[in-house]
Here is the input.
Amino acid sequence: MATSKGLNVDQRDELANYQNICDYFTEQSDEYSKNDPLKEEVADLKNNIAQLEKVVPDKIKSTKPDTEKKNQLKGKMSHFYDSICADTLSYAKKNNKIDLAAAVNYKESALLDIPNENFVPTIRSINAAIKSCLTDTAFKGYGITQADLDKGEADAVTFLSYLPEAKSTSSDIVIADAAIEALFEPLRENKTQIGLLMRSYAKNGRKENIPFSEGWKSVKIVIQSGGRITKLNGVITNAADSSIKIPRVTVKNLTTGKTVFSNLLGEYRFEKFRSGTFEYEYSAAGYITKKVIITIKKGKHTTVDVALESA
Here is the structure.
């Protein structure tokens, strides 16, 4: 049985949404009467949130990422590696080192666009590629040393510590994942009931209150854009041998322009975007570019593995 000390990323987002609901109805408490079933439902939601937090307290408090520091460090590292990659790319092209050129072909903007979970693997793959050149006399003239790579690795370790998944908890509570998921069921029922009760406040409803109703609609929009996040991920392999995973594949949503890159294991991932049917382009040096049309449903996790043929 799978176990956990706390909430996963989707569960933390979902919990935040229920807290937003509570905040809204607390602020608008004058808009509904003491005897209104809505008041009881909101109170029940608050109690269910408190119960969930009681079961997994440390994880909820300790997994909030330090977003500002994380973004600052990512910017600093991207700028640092922009120059390192540029110099190494110059060396690679001059010395006809095709694989090295592909491994370090990153600009600052491209590094910043890499999803956080793929950022450190990318930095480490760059370091590994550059390390093989350090003993080359021709490369020494570019001034890149082991100390530069060590600095990059130290920053990478710090960056990992800012990611939600890396945060640890001091709690000794270990419960089944299914048990944690079960704690969300009462909250989901509360949300459903609140939605039904709010119909009375809509235009032409028995308790018509347009500002109150419109405010609730705004809260719902925020909730629907979070919670169970829409995701697309997959693994990119060589069409001739599926055991060969392809790193550094550019995966681009041709509708939105959003681009991510596959990591060393050939894995790619998009998340937090609107649902719909999109055309994605998969391209990499040495492979034939492939376009795939994918339909993604709201709040669903879609997996699409792609095999690329050698050029």
About this structure: The two ends are 45 Å apart (CA to CA).
